[in-house]
Amino acid sequence: MTNSYPADARLRVFATAASWIEGAAVRQLEQTLQRRGVVAVAAMPDLHPGHKGPVGCAVLADGVVHPDIVGTDIGCGMTLWRLDGLVRRLRIDKAVRALERLGDTDGLDLSEAAAAGVSADIASRHADALGTVGGGNHFVELQTVERIIDAPSCAETGLEVGALLLLVHSGSRALGPEVLARHPHAHGEGLRLDEGGAAYLVDHDAAVAFARLNRAVLAKRAAALLGLDGTPWLDVPHNHVTTDGVEVLHRKGAAQADLGLVPVPGSRGAMTYLVRPDPDAPGALRSIAHGAGRKRDRASMQGKSDQRDRPNPVGNRVICADAKLAREEAPEAYKNIARVVADLETHGLARTVALLKPVVTFKTGRA
DNA sequence: ATGTCC
């Protein structure tokens, strides 16, 4: 059964019938099209309902910024680091014990804040948050290259089967909600760039920088705990605003597609697809899907098994001391990532470069 | 998503 999407020339939905999209998300798309200044919306195959609008879309507006499209987790995104190790030489139990200590937050090094474009004010007020994963769908994951799909691209980057990688999904922690609250806006009306929108964007950009630094600190800590040298490779936000001063491009759970390769993770029990986006794909607003997308909301997962010890096709170890969170984030709460990426390929938005397999997933060390 | 309900 296919969804019926709003008949609106401004809307493109990059999903086939195979990627089931909840009716509530489609209705939210309709509301998004009614917001002031919206000139185009690109919906991705991982689209699902969110708090103030659908997650998994890019929204282009003319002269107006809508802080509640981006929401609280300003700057959230994915960072991929390369590690100088091979999975066949990895001692899994030792790696699990090492990554369990990601929950400790003692002795964080703030020396890199200034170089990363984070002000001393923010760095000092949010020092305790720096290098912390957070909750929800955030994670740090040790991965290995499982399969090469695009051999020339992998040869070009030196990516080989069995290599180890770190994928970090996190955001601006408490800074994002603080920025959102500091810029009151009417739902649907947003803020014109010349009446408060520009001021929001200054604070927003600081949160984006803080989120990026937070991911880098997390990756650096994880590499150090594993005793492996790590090299930053990719950093791709999927919850933010970019603007040329007139057109305002919001991404809400949609990865930026003009920064090079993008890691598109499935659930904690599924592969991550490393893809090469086409930044000029017509109608896609320089964006692609940011993950598998939820197919079941968090509340509906309670009362089910947390699946922490259930074997999954990937066989990764999961560190998650919080049973409630483990249930919410169970693999069956998410769509099929292979299907989502197939939809991206069908529509010419991206090509798969390699499949990355989770080895150890860190969610949270505390309940 | 959130030093998430003190």
TrEMBL record:
GO biological process: RNA processing; RNA repair
Binding site for GMP: N137, H138, F139, V140, E141, H238, N239, H290, G291, A292, G293, K363
Region listing for Disordered, in residue ranges: 288-316
Cofactor binding: number and manner: Binds 2 manganese ions per subunit.
Cofactors (names): Mn(2+)
Signal peptide boundaries: none
Residues the entry annotates as binding Mn(2+) 1: H138
Pfam families: RtcB
Binding positions for Mn(2+) 2 per the UniProt entry: H169, H238
Catalytic residues identified in the record: H290
Reactions mediated catalytically: a 3'-end 3'-phospho-ribonucleotide-RNA + a 5'-end dephospho-ribonucleoside-RNA + GTP = a ribonucleotidyl-ribonucleotide-RNA + GMP + diphosphate
Protein name per its UniProtKB record: 3'-phosphate/5'-hydroxy nucleic acid ligase
